[in-house]
Amino acid sequence: MVFVVRSACWADTGIIVALDSTLQGFNNSADFNAGIKQKAGREFYSGSLGGTKIVLVRSPMGKVNNAITAQVLLSEFSIDSVYSISPAGSLVGNLEKGDVVVATTVYQHDFGSIKPYGFIWSKTPVRNNQEADAYNVLDRSLVKSVLEVNRSLKIWGNLTEGILVSGDQFIASSDKKKWLMEKFKASAVDMGGSAIAQVCYSNKVKCCLIRTITDEAEVEARADFNESVTASSSAPDLVRMMKEILKSRKEKRGLQ
Questions:
Q1: Is 133 left (phi over 0), alpha (psi -120 to 50) or beta?
Q2: Which residue has the higher pLDDT, 237 or 161?
Q3: Which residues pair with 113 in a beta bridge?
Q4: Which of 27-36, 72-81, 163-172 bottoms out in mean pLDDT, i.e. has the lowest?
Q5: Which end of the chain has the lower number of beta carbons within 10 A, N or C?
Q6: By the 8 A CB rule, do 107 and 194 touch?
Q7: What stretch of H or E contains 165?
Q8: 16 - beta bridge partners?
């Protein structure tokens, strides 16, 4: 697949966040000298973070909401890569609350058919029922950059790469969790990453999904999620991480 940059110079980096606390963390650290644009019920903040031009936006939950956010971002601004930062539920034992997953692959786990004998999952068509789930493998260079920066600075104690699954469902079920692990070999589950990845793929823009673990997708998941979000101290680390990622990408571009 060939990605294109839609300006003579390097375009802006888009950052889509899910939580108000994360948005506030970026607002406290970035210089949004280019102002705020309102579109489709979202506020897009244009400015710079660590010397790199960015456009920041918070998206409501759900695949449709995230697809709207991503498409407006790419339609209204010159963007060459998108980072999505959001909570997720852990599906594997080695991921606990506060850990971070950068997705290598993403699937829509709730796309399929309901038969008399149950739910039958199927791949999501991308263009005219062709290239089903062609967007699901995410850009390796962006994944590698996140891993390298964390390895160097040790911002997060446990940051791993893994498969992410998305659906318009908050998962708080041991049975569903087991199915997601067995069906997709997934590490984490969220409610919008696959939509952002599909929009970016359709627009030929690189995409990276960074997920912070807030719960274990078990029966206590909702209470754990609310507690994690309320007590979250990850926003400063997320901002610091993005500064270093963007700095690393900028340095590498300067060598090209």
A1: left
A2: 161
A3: 120
A4: 27-36
A5: C
A6: yes
A7: strand 159-166
A8: 57, 84
d(CA 228, CA 225): 5
| Per-residue DSSP letter, 223 | H
Angle CA(148)–CA(149)–CA(154) in degrees, nearest 5?
Answer: 105
Q: Is 14 helix (H, G, I), strand (E, B) or coil?
A: strand
Antiparallel, parallel or unpaired: β 100-108 and 79-90:
unpaired
Round to whole Å and give the CA distance between 146 and 123. Answer: 28
In sequence order, which residues have a C-beta less than 8 Å from that of residue 10 and are 6 or more positions away?
A: 53, 80, 253
Give residue-wise pLDDT tens across range 208-246.
999 999 887 776 767 766 666 655 555 668 888 899 999
Within 8 A by CB and 6+ apart from 130, the residues are none
Provide φ and ψ at 192, rounded to 5°: -165, -10
CA distance 179 to 115: 17
| First-to-final CA distance of the chain | 20
Instruction: For residue 178, give the H/E element and its range.
Output: helix 174-184
Q: State the pTM of this model.
A: 0.89
Backbone angles phi, psi at 49, to 5 degrees: -135, 115
